[in-house]
Amino acid sequence: MTRAIKIVGGGLCGLSLGIALRRRGVPVTLHEAGRYPRHRVCGEFISGVRREVLETLGLEDILQTGVSQESTVWYHGSRRVLVAKLPERALGISRWVLDHALQLRFQEVGGVLVERSRVTSGNPEGQVWCCGRVPARGQWIGLKCHVRGMDVEADLEVHLGRNGYVGAARVGDGRVNVCGLFRVDRSLAGQDVLSAYLEAGGLSVLARRMSVASVDESSRAAVAGFCLGRQPKEVGRLALGDAWGMIPPFTGNGMSMAFESAELALDPLSRYADGMTDWNEAEKCIERQLRIKFSRRLLGSQILHPCLTSSIGQSFLTAVNRSGLLPFALCFRLLR
Ligand SMILES: Cc1cc2nc3c(=O)[nH]c(=O)nc-3n(C[C@H](O)[C@H](O)[C@H](O)COP(=O)(O)OP(=O)(O)OC[C@H]3O[C@@H](n4cnc5c(N)ncnc54)[C@H](O)[C@@H]3O)c2cc1C
Fold first, then answer.
1. 67-99 core/surface letters (b: 16 or more CB in 10 A; e: else)
2. How much distance in Å is there from the Cα of 228 to the middle of ligand 1?
């Protein structure tokens, strides 16, 4: 017996799960509300994903096209406060490139993709929700764009501003992805809303550097109306990736969690497809493993997040770092 799986949402989690299930011969249909390729609000900095996870999913070659990231520099306003080697190598990769490559791979291995198809309900059995963060009244806005011709001081620059934080990471093809998470300010609008948020947060040096470089206008993207942390769960729904829980972006670990949750769900879903377990058992098993694997990092990141987004927290962090007591490598490990 082979039962089919229906995946709702074709971001990293849905596409990688679809590819891995197809490689095991499971019939998969994936419904994606949008189209490919497209830019997405994301720092495009992947950290913490293990090679074995990518191998199991069949994605190792795709991720190899990313730019190796080894160094980071942090600014508090215009002051440089930290220069460090990343405790482990990360990757910079454009979501335009990555999501498109995964879409093509999913179709190559026989997955059925239905674009521009927004699913709102359906029989929960055999249906996996990989539809990203759950819409909610939240205080955050994410903004991003690609810039060409902008020099960066390290593979990843992090800028702490009064209203949030921004990452600037090399993503290949001469592009730097500038992406920030800010507290929503309804007085800021206009075409270049990212620069407006940078100026409002005291990050005018970064705004000036961008203004003399070349911004790819088609890459501008924005997202608002979400909350960080565990997402509200609808009874009976199996949710993975951001739809299960959204780790604050400063960790650079959300994309890894999307891949890891797809890997973790793979065996229970394959057993369900082969008729070896029923849906309830598969769902319970996956939910338990998600909690075991991700609860600690979600908690750690939510404790640290206010240190990066409030003036008091930022001053505390920079003071601790000045005194040489900031356990950078330990915090890094705690969040993975
Ligand atoms: C400002 C910001 C910066 C970030 N920076 C980083 C970073 O540097 N590094 C990192 O690792 N992570 C980062 N992240 C997080 C990362 O982008 C996510 O964790 C990751 O994309 C989650 O993948 P996913 O597949 O679960 O969800 P998504 O990538 O959001 O994909 C969900 C998909 O589902 C589709 N969809 C939604 N609803 C429906 C529906 N009803 N029917 C059909 N389709 C639907 C959507 O169109 C979308 O394509 C950042 C996030 C933000 C907001």
1. bebeebbbbbbeeebbebebeeebbbbbbbbbb
2. 12
